[in-house]
Amino acid sequence: MTLKIEPVGKVVGGHQEIGEIYWGGIDSIIRLDPGYPVEVIQGLDEFSHLVVTWHFSQASPSDVVLGTREPRDDLRWSSAGTGTFTHRDHRRPNQLAVSFPRLLKVDGLDLHVTDLDAIDGTPVYDLGPYFTITGPQGDVREPHWPAEMLRDYWALWTV
């Protein structure tokens, strides 16, 4: 089955380039389609965070890697040779991503956010509020390499 979806909006401002190292502390706007009535976001301003599904729109289908590779192609983690769905980057079949930015304010159909790790012009395919109750339950387990690899990911936020 094929799913055809259209963007509900796009990212405006914020990060300008692919491959930026630090993603924290940068504000941007998720500008929803102007054809939507403002009621589509009624009540959203009561939430601190969003769940945003977006597309790596500047990636090429030739970037997709089906198989194993080192995280970020960095040999420091060569023992972590991991499969396509163990990564959270553009090298996946549908080149979709999910982010959890902080919602700063709502202005009409503009959602002002910070810590959205997408670049200016990125199409947004879906969004909603983050519900703590539907987040991970129980202990969260992961190998050592994500924390090492991403220790500076939100660096501007933590400084």
UniProtKB/TrEMBL annotation:
<dbReference type="InterPro" id="IPR036414">
    <property type="entry name" value="YaeB_N_sf"/>
</dbReference>
<keyword id="KW-0489">Methyltransferase</keyword>
<dbReference type="Pfam" id="PF01980">
    <property type="entry name" value="TrmO_N"/>
</dbReference>
<feature type="domain" description="TsaA-like">
    <location>
        <begin position="5"/>
        <end position="139"/>
    </location>
</feature>
<keyword id="KW-0808">Transferase</keyword>
<dbReference type="InterPro" id="IPR040372">
    <property type="entry name" value="YaeB-like"/>
</dbReference>
<dbReference type="GO" id="GO:0008168">
    <property type="term" value="F:methyltransferase activity"/>
</dbReference>
<dbReference type="InterPro" id="IPR036413">
    <property type="entry name" value="YaeB-like_sf"/>
</dbReference>
<dbReference type="InterPro" id="IPR023370">
    <property type="entry name" value="TrmO-like_N"/>
</dbReference>
<protein>
    <submittedName>
        <fullName>TrmO family methyltransferase</fullName>
        <ecNumber>2.1.1.-</ecNumber>
    </submittedName>
</protein>
<dbReference type="GO" id="GO:0032259">
    <property type="term" value="P:methylation"/>
</dbReference>
<keyword id="KW-0949">S-adenosyl-L-methionine</keyword>
<comment type="similarity">
    <text>Belongs to the tRNA methyltransferase O family.</text>
</comment>
